[in-house]
Amino acid sequence: MKERNSTAAISVKAPVIGLPRAMLYDRYEVLWKSFFSALGMKGIVSKPTNKAMIEAGSALAIDEACLSTKIYLGHIQSLIGKCDYILVPRISNFGLHRNMCTKFESLYDVVCNVFRNTDQKFVAYNVDALQKIDEEKAFVDLGTALGYDRKTAQKAYKRAKRNESEDWKKKVHEEEALYKSQSIKVLIVAHSYVLGDAYIGQPVIDYLKGMEVTPIRADVVDRKEALKQSAKVSKTLKWELSRELMGSIQMHRDKVDGLILLSAFPCGPDSMVNEMIIRKFTGLPILNIVLDNQDGTAGLETRLESFTDILKLKKGVL
Amino acid sequence: MEEAYLGVDIGSISTKGVIIDKNYKILASEYIWTEGDPMGAARKLIELLEKQFDKEKYQIVATGTTGSARKLVGAMLGATMVKNEITAHAVGTTTLYPDVRTILEIGGQDSKIILVENGVAVDYAMNTLCAAGTGSFLSSQAKRLGVEVEDFGKIALTSKHPTQLAARCTVFAESDLVHKIQMGHTKEDIIAGLCRSVVNNYLNNVGKGKKIVSPVVFQGGVSKNIGVVEAFKKALGCDIIVDENGHLMGALGIAILAGKGNKKKVFDFSVEDMVFKTREINCGRCPNNCEIICVYRDDMLIDSWGNRCDKGALKAGTRTGVK
Q: ATPase BadF/BadG/BcrA/BcrD type domain: which residues (chain B) (predicted)?
């Protein structure tokens, strides 16, 4: 793993690690926080996304970057100088046909390059199962890079992983309960960093709740089962996160009234996978929304309102 | 006195209004240009509707607004129902055509498809936040070709060999078009090709994966273009119904929805004489710096929107609002 300033001495006080509240934060929040706290490190998290952050991130990113990348850079910016290290993981894959979007492979290098004129130190952990580096090895390497011995790092990872799995079970249980709701249910198919974002995803959830519709997150699902079910739809789909979402739709298609596909412009994997979803899951009302850095919410509200109206008309409750 | 309902559809290009009785019979209807002034257009519309309306016999007890300025004009007219144009169109069209199975619509900025079963909308799709292949594309290309967009359809019908144009994205369609003009394709062939590319674009985008079953009703501004209608007929292999009152469907639908709604309020024609103003405020109370739109009636704040949180919530009835 290429480590910038990795030889820098660790201060006597426990180092402070900065966690950007963007991209994989929603997915790994518990794992990261538990790992660093088990090591005795203090973590700080950037504030929920706001417009100023998106503007800052957009100015830093190249034009072609996706909205989520722009948001991520805005979060990094807000953490610069406030912590000893900022965590920027590099995750390539979890095995065959289990790739992450290339964004997650490049993010560490992109961040180091964009902020090369600052004194900020960044740390990564490097998951690449096809190169025989699994998550555990990646975290142990991260621990040692931060100056801890292997055994301490391994123990911290094991504990963090336990916390993560318990927390996830609870979250999945709560989400599964929503499928029993008597109201109109909409499965929102979106990456956790889109749906979990306070500025771009949360308004969609709030709006749907205001329309007396129950929004359910497709990404909060039993991941093992979802991966298995996704193979029924496509054997060759290569993106891990898309597989989870696809499997989740397959598992719940009969329990919901409609699907909302929510993606950040211009998401490469989603542009292909969402197209596939629309073609494969016919007979289920589907709304496809692409979020961009647009200020007006009118177009979004029109689409959400009309979609829920159609579902209501179908059920005879409008 | 008999009950009547008012429906107003304020689009980006035109403003439409109807007054119907409780059997959904149209008592008055009007169609005018918005001309970038939705409030002014609404006021003018109300004035024109009032002239056709028998106030001795009927009383308007519910008012609905739809279209892109529905909120603004809804606040102004004291609407009892404010709903998006898709729902309004679905309700309006299925009321006039109970047998309809597919509604195609192409407007100034958006396009949509609504599938209907037993008089109820069961599925729909709309273009994503991109105006590809809509009326505005046709009018900008008309300008490029030096042709009135109203004549587009007639000219298209004279073509024997419509030019093949890229259909997937209108940006590519446009560069393709420039290329074909320079290559020497005739104007009528290019215009017919454009009509066809709008149809192909529509069927590949919003129509993708949808089963289009006849009877098919086509509406929205672009439905007035006979070239596009013919291209749809050819592509779908079935007849296409274009209602001459197609432009009123939204207004009719929202009037029906207002009539069905629980909220009732007698409509007061005196809004014509009141002064309405809007003002944009940048909240500035957090980094989101929301743009809040305030609507004033005779200098009194009656409604506001655009705030993402309660920090920007303004109280109706105050004179100033936040600075």
A: 6-258
User: Domain total for chain B?
Assistant: 3
Q: Which of B68, B84, B128 sits opposite A290 (nearest CB)?
A: B128
On whether both B107 and B21 belong to a single domain, the answer is: no
Q: Are residues B140 and B78 in the same domain?
A: no
Three-class secondary structure of residue B304 per DSSP: strand
ipTM reported for the complex surpasses 0.85: no
Question: From the CA of A144, how many Å to the nearest CA of chain B?
Answer: 38
What is the fold, at CATH topology level, of the domain defined by A179-315?
Answer: Rossmann fold (3.40.50)
Backbone angles phi, psi at B17, to 5 degrees: -145, 145
**Pairing state between β A126-128 and A90-93:** parallel
Beta-carbon separation of A309 and B83 below 8 A: yes
Query: Is residue B245 in some structural domain?
Result: no
Q: Do A288 and B128 touch (CB under 8 A)?
A: yes
Quote the domain boundaries for residue B75: 2-90+250-272
Q: How far is B68 from chain A (nearest CA, A)?
A: 8
What residues contact B77, with CB distance under 8 A and at least 6 apart? B6, B8, B42, B46, B63, B65, B267, B271
Where exactly does CATH 3.40.50.11900 map onto chain A?
A: 179-315
Cis peptide before B38 (omega within 30 of 0): no
Residues B178 and B190 placed together within one structural domain of the fold: yes
For residue A306, give the nearest of B86, B120, B129 by CB distance. B86
Q: Label the pairing between strands B14-21 and A85-87.
A: unpaired
Q: Considering only CB atoms, which chain A residues are within 8 Å of B129?
A: 289-292, 294, 299-300
CATH number at residue B214: 3.30.420.40
Q: One digit per residue, pLDDT tens: chain B, 323 residues?
A: 899 999 999 987 789 999 999 999 999 999 998 888 999 999 999 999 999 999 999 999 999 999 989 999 999 999 999 998 888 998 999 988 999 999 999 887 778 898 888 877 777 888 765 556 678 788 888 888 888 888 889 999 999 999 888 756 667 777 888 888 899 999 999 999 989 888 988 888 888 778 899 999 999 888 989 999 999 999 999 999 999 888 899 999 999 999 998 899 999 888 878 888 888 888 888 888 888 888 888 888 888 888 888 888 877 766 654 43
Under 8 Å between Cβ of A49 and A197: yes
